[in-house]
Amino acid sequence: MPPETRTDEPVADLFRRHRSDLLRLAVLLLGDTSQAEDVVQDAFVALHRRWPVLADPAAAAGYLRVSVVNGARSAHRRRATVRRHLRVGEPEALPAADAGLLLAEEHRTVLAAVRRLPRRQREVLVLRYWSGLSEAEIARTLAVSRGTVKTCASRALAKLEDLLGGPDGH
Asked: Does the pTM exceed 0.85?
């Protein structure tokens, strides 16, 4: 059996099982479906290339998640560089055509508030509440300490409460 055949099937299986969740993660981090699709595709291509030397194939889903988060960070850096060098504001991204069908109005409001958070806080919340990762898994994914995850989550939730008019009714 050629080496690429041994690689193709496990990666194809991972693609079938994890692509949708990774795409949602990338869309939440980037706010752009097209870029999110590119980031997810790049993560799977990188995994396919590395599969023969992957130390623990059982950790491939985690590898993909880290790749998507890092890809989203790179995309944000590229956007910032383009804005800085062109000295032009980035036009407002249009929502995906199916966004209205996928999210109720209150979800869109919360998502808009999440997008206003600093990058690290946004990543922590998305990984915790959307992807359902534990503090330890988030720490490994973002290459930070569990304390940093706790601090970011706490600050992000406080900021969201403030942005969304928390329980004291502002």
From this structure: no
Sign of CA dihedral 65, 69, 70, 75: positive
pLDDT at 19 over 90: yes
SS3 32: coil
- In a 3-state reduction of DSSP, which class is residue 170? coil
Residue identified by tokens 């942005």 is 163
Cα distance between residue 120 and residue 32, in whole Å: 18
Token pair recorded at residue 33? 């479906």
Residue corresponding to tokens 């991972």 = 14
Longest Cα–Cα distance in the chain: 65
Residues contacting residue 47 through CB under 8 Å, at least 6 positions apart: 11, 14, 54, 60, 63, 64, 67
Residue keyed to tokens 């949602």: 24
AA letter at 106: E
Identify the residue whose tokens are 């059996």: 1
d(CA 126, CA 133): 9
The Cβ of residue 149 has, within 10 Å, a number of other Cβ atoms equal to 25
